[in-house]
Design brief:
Strand content: 15-25%
Oligomer: single chain
Number of strands: 13
Strand order of the largest sheet: 6-5-4-3-2-1-13
Number of helices: 13
Structural class: alpha/beta
Shape: globular
């Protein structure tokens, strides 16, 4: 087999709100090598199960050979445990097709290592304690989602105008531990095929992907970077905020404080003050739960793999859903920032949310440009679905308008929001 790829094709699948990418490294001899990065979906047109089955069939057909008619994946990467990144591995039919492709290596974050005991009592800085905390987060999120469906928040959940309840349901469901998918990844990773990565550890792909260097930039362990245990909700210098957003929210007027109160249970027979008080108590409970679940979501994203693929003088960056504390470890290393400066292809983090593409990283990309440069203008890839998460009136919509504007003006952007009806995937090809 030749030792250096001649080209790389990045196939972006339209999975709704989620990530699924097939990287095909072509070689002059020995055949192509295929890497699947994530296989998840939420909010997909026609339903995630249907779309993921179509995607799995496409991957099978793309990677099949006469000797391997069921297809072949050389590497499977699951960046983190959210269902919009791994759901498909546990979906009957779709997951079976992927498993049949028998990957030579399965890469996950260090927090997913099944050998780390969940009942450990080691210090907070140890992997075992941190993994236990992640398991607890999933349990709590599942509890809150159940609370939404049939518990004391059920009446409030029926209020279709409630922004809080819609967000709580979306984020809570996404944090459930995705047991079927996790078990499928463990099966594929048996017999020494699995590798659980943290910043600086080798991905072990030298023989599988000749001529391809893979740097693991994140996540750091808690010992490496204590900040990874928490997540900031705002960061004016790094996040894609409107500076006036807070003032705008505080200045709103004309909101009826009794709006919706008559819809709560049997309180309609009580006076307006009682209805208002009862309704606001339920809103307060929902708001508190949302704050907790958001924190769980943020911490899970901070376990996301950040991978930098380098082939010759070209590099491709896949950061999953990494957020600022995960990124900040890489940003603190001068040698890493030097490598990131020359990135040719950037998979936009966390579906284009305001907090997953730090401005320091974006400004560091030397290949972004207002006009197309011969073969060198930055290429960006965004997998997302508008209207699934966040809100324009709060300047938290996903994808974030200010970020998309920058991507569109300074790079060659491929976004699933522009695929059109019935388009399952689009390819971006890089020649070496």
């Amino acid at each position: 087999m030749s030792r250096t790829p001649t080209s790389l094709t990045i196939r972006t699948y339209n999975v709704g709100f989620g990530d699924c990418f097939l990287l095909t490294f072509d070689y002059e001899t020995g055949g192509p090598r295929h890497v699947l990065i994530d296989f998840g979906s939420q909010k997909a047109d026609g339903g995630p199960g249907k779309v993921l089955k179509q995607v799995a069939e496409s991957i099978r057909d793309t990677t099949a050979t006469d000797e391997l008619p069921d297809g072949k994946l050389h590497v499977v990467v699951a960046t983190h445990r959210h269902q919009d990144h791994i759901k498909g591995f546990g979906v009957k039919g779709a997951g079976d097709l992927i498993e049949a492709m028998q990957p030579d290596r399965v890469l996950q974050a260090w927090t997913e290592d099944p050998e780390i005991p969940e009942d450990a009592t080691a210090p907070v800085s140890s992997p075992s304690r941190h993994r236990r905390q992640l398991a607890d987060m999933n349990t709590m999120a599942a509890h809150y989602f159940s609370d939404m469906a049939k518990g004391p928040l059920a009446a409030l959940a029926k209020d279709k105008k409630s922004v809080i309840t819609r967000q709580l349901a979306f984020i809570g469901e996404n944090n459930i531990s995705n047991k079927a998918a996790v078990e499928a990844l463990m099966r594929m990773g048996e017999n020494g095929k699995a590798r659980y990565l943290h910043a600086g550890r080798s991905a072990g792909l030298g023989r599988i992907l000749p001529g391809v260097s893979v740097d693991v930039l994140g996540p750091p362990t808690v010992k490496q970077w204590e900040q990874v245990r928490s997540q900031a909700s705002t960061h004016e210098s790094e996040f894609w905020h409107f500076q006036a957003a807070t003032a705008k929210r505080l200045s709103r007027t004309g909101v009826d404080p009794f709006a919706g109160s008559e819809r709560i249970g049997k309180l309609g027979r009580h006076d307006a003050a009682t209805r208002w008080f009862a309704y606001r108590l339920k809103q307060l409970r929902a708001d508190s739960l949302l704050g907790i679940v958001r924190a769980l979501d943020d911490a899970m994203n901070n376990t996301s793999l950040i991978l930098l693929f380098t082939i010759g003088d070209k590099s491709i960056l896949f950061p999953g859903d990494a957020q600022i504390e995960n990124w900040s470890y890489a940003m603190s290393q001068d040698d890493i920032m030097e490598k990131l400066a020359g990135v040719d292809v950037y998979k936009v983090g966390h579906h284009g949310s305001l907090n997953a593409t730090p401005k320091t990283v974006w400004n560091n990309f030397e290949n972004k440009a207002s006009k197309r440069k011969a073969g060198k203008r930055l290429k960006t890839i965004l997998s997302t679905k508008s209207g699934s998460h966040g809100h324009e009136d709060r300047n938290t919509e996903v994808p974030r308008r200010t970020l998309v504007k920058a991507l569109d003006s300074k790079s060659d952007l491929t976004s699933t929001t522009e695929f059109g009806s019935g388009v399952l995937f689009k390819d971006v090809t890089i020649e070496f």
